[in-house]
Amino acid sequence: MADQPIIKDPEKEKRKIKSVSKMKEIMTTYYIEAKTARENGKKVAWITSGGPVEFLIAMDVIPVYPENHGAMVGASKMGVDLCEKAEEMGYSRDLCSYARVDISCSVTNGGPIGGLPKPDFLVCCNNICGTVLKWYEVAARYYDVPLFILDTPFIHTTFSESAKKYVITQTYEYIEFLEKQCGKKMDFNRMHQVSKLAVQSLRLWQEVLDTAAHKPAPMTAFDAFFHLALIVTLRGTQIAVDYYKQLRDEMNQRIKDGISMVPNEKYRLLWDNLPVWYRTKWLSDKFSSHNACLVGDTYTSAWSGIMDLIDEDNFIETGAVAYSSVYINVSLDIMLETLKKLIKKYDVDGLVMHSNRSCKPYSFGQYDLQKMVMKELKLPTLIIEADMVDARSFSESQIETRIDAFMETLKG
Amino acid sequence: MITAGIDIGSITAKAAILQDGNILGTQVNFTGYNSSQAGKNVIDDLVKEIGISVEDLDSVVSTGYGRNSVEFANKAITEITCHGAGAYFLNPDIRFIIDIGGQDSKVIRIDDAGRVVDFAMNDKCAAGTGRFLEVMARALEVDLDGFGDISLQGKVPAKISSICTVFAESEVISLISKGETRKNIIAGIHESVASRVSALAKRVGVVEPVMMTGGVAKNIGAVRALEAKLETTIQVSEYAQVNGAIGAAILAEKQVRLEVLRESNKI
Predict the structure, then answer these.
(1) Which ipTM was obtained for this model?
(2) Contact A408 B81 (CB under 8 A)
(3) I want to staple B190 with a disulfide (CB 3.0 to 4.6 A). Which of A239, A256, B78, B225 is the partner?
């Protein structure tokens, strides 16, 4: 048996995205660099996924993302074990599973990469949730390192002038904090270059996502979940720009060659909330079996959703406002407007919402959003209850029944 | 044309056989641990009772949690679609269905053609389901069949605040020790089920007339409590428990007609 060559299904091979190997290579290099930073005389900062990383890049600090790490733990199906360890330490099961697995990894050096490199300092921006404040305070105490908090006010209707002033002032404080931690002055020319690269990579990322508006879609939201990593971790670098150019070109070539990700795409769906990291394959296969393709999502487009608010020549001031305006730091009415645009752009037949036990700001209000979407757009919607990392919150047969029933209603 | 529907639930396995829009017979067995075998047994029992053989069935549709384990079924369709089709068959005026089974409760809104417009199911919790009532009846040492009737005698329903089956059981035990009457406790239990399910129903939006299906529809206390919560009358068919199986048999018939149409188009 061992001598027999593995016969690959040419149909499946054709649909595989070639850039994946490049992406894996970049991420491996990135984590090796982060883990060997100290040996190479570089500083490491932990930062929240929605935080302004550009300043760190400009200061030559290696940014590390506990949330990205949490996603890796989830995708490696190591979430339950690590969540349980955190619970043994006394953390509530109701706490975000990213926070639980991260805290757990800090203590045990567990997880797929044996824990994250120790931080020299921490940067926490609360534009994505309130949990990060306490989570980073815990990390600051555990590692005994300084913590910078960037507080972004929630946007109910518009972003007031005083709120703008408030976040811009903090951005200057952020620069001062970095200068103190790194023992050098900010090079504003370098910062300008990084800003340009950041905006460029955001635009390219959006172009990648936009290719799925094509019928049939050359990629799905499940692919976007995977390829998102660079826009989170290496935004503001040439690496991200080059990679997304390559990926965009590959997607456009797939369109030209008529290669779709779902073989018989018939139903187009939009996904809301974070992925169910440990079940992306199962969910992808499940939807595919109904000839349904998740063509877009609110999550991966959250990063590029704010790019039009950024003026790369005045990143310090416009960036602060843009970072405050991310998808989950705004009211339901503003979220609905974004949803409507996505529904129109990708021309979808339905909306699938993941009520994510971990992510309260993302999941709170989903039932209202669902009602608004059904009422205003008459679009069928489905809510499935799960968790992004903690597989104990995923009930396969219940979710299967919901998806099957939803697809039956779509098929009529 | 003779078609069958098999509904494998968490507690019971149901079967229905239809011939040209008439119910030939229905059957309810316990599911047990082997849902595949339960599917075979329930259909074998029913064909024997009707006096036909399995070979006489033109098509079989399976539904319920064990739908994918019925190997001889021509197709598996979810219980949402089947309960919609079953209720529409029993009364085409029905627009809203509340189905409470052994381990889940669901609400389904259908249109004037019997198609599902929207639905919602309970989350990962047994509160508000048949299993919840079963556990409570056992805790109170009352026969499940008479559970609903007793609840109607409770004048001041006791407040069951816990939403968890396990905690509600201990709450019931503490109510007993406080001297609360059994009738009031049982009425309170039915109210708590009604609260859970009515919240689900309101989320989807209740459209009258409403029908209740599933095993719990046999419990008059649950039906009355839900009527009070939703401020509407609820129809309950004698076929409530086998409604999903009937719907599956209806859809099996549709399936055959569709195939015939497809075949003839090919010619």
Answers:
(1) 0.84
(2) yes
(3) B225
